[in-house]
Amino acid sequence: MAAVEGVLSALERNWEMVDGALAGLDGAILARRPTDQCNSIAWLLWHMTRVVDTFVHTRLQAQPQVWIREGWYTRFGMDSDPDDRGVGWTATQVAQWVPPAKDVQVGYYEAIKQTTRAYLATLSDTDLEVRRVIPPVPEPRTVAAALGQMTWDNVAHGGQIAYLRGLFQGMGWYSR
Questions:
Q1: What is the pTM of this model?
Q2: Quick one: average pLDDT of 142-150?
Q3: Is residue 1 scored above 70 in pLDDT?
Q4: What confidence tens digit (pLDDT) does each residue in 79-107 have?
Q5: Which end of the chain is more exposed for a tag (fewer CB within 10 A), N or C?
Q6: Please, are residues 86 and 43 in contact by the beta-carbon 8 Å criterion?
Q7: pLDDT over 60 (residue 73)
Q8: Domains (range + CATH), the chain
Q9: DSSP per residue over 65-110, as a string?
Q10: What distance in Å separates the CA atoms of residue 143 and residue 151, rounded to the nearest whole number?
């Protein structure tokens, strides 16, 4: 379990920052894009959460994603495509995307935080050393490497969310 502590610590700190960034924001701020070439806080939160759901459930456990299993896709007004997480979307697609109400967005995000914590608690050092093909990378890699990639992606998007919060409404994300 000691090897998982770094991943969990990075995710928890990022989630704390994102939670602070989301505090007090309304639907208009969540959906706002600073330019037509940028993502909104809502889109970034959805994408960030979809990536973690994909890694934790499909790629690392060969289980159905929470997106599908719990019907979050219907609450987002989207289809159940397990591969749709925003990767490769055009600026037009991002502009046309209509985010659901904040409680739906945060509900999915919270569900994934919970299932990710539960999954990470089950991993041993031996589990992290298992090498296998974990898409989209075709070469075998360790579970630890895949978790590192997922964590990096999560932290990068968390920072974008915090930055946009600061740009639109001030530094509410800063808690310490």
A1: 0.94
A2: 95
A3: no
A4: 999 999 999 999 999 999 999 999 999 99
A5: C
A6: yes
A7: yes
A8: 4-169 (1.20.120.450)
A9: -HHHHT-HHHHTT----TT-SSTT--HHHHHH-----HHHHHHHHH
A10: 12
For residue 30, give every residue at least 6 positions away whose Cβ sits within 8 Å of its Cβ, in sequence order, or none. 22, 40, 41, 42, 45, 99, 102, 105
Output phi, psi for 141, to 5 deg.
-145, 165
| Alpha-carbon gap, residue 38 to 160, rounded angstroms | 10
Q: Give the DSSP H/E element, type plus range, for residue 140.
A: strand 140-142
pLDDT tens by residue, 15-44: 999 999 999 999 999 999 999 999 999 999
Q: Which amino acid is at 17?
A: M
Locus of tokens 């979307």? 89
Burial class (CB in 10 A: 0-12, 13-18, 19+), 163: middle
Count the alpha carbons within 13 Å of 22 in the hemisphere toward its beta carbon: 22
Q: Please, what sign has the CA dihedral across residues 32, 35, 41, 46?
A: positive
In residues, how long is the chain? 176
Q: Do the beta carbons of residue 23 and residue 172 sit within 8 Å? A: yes
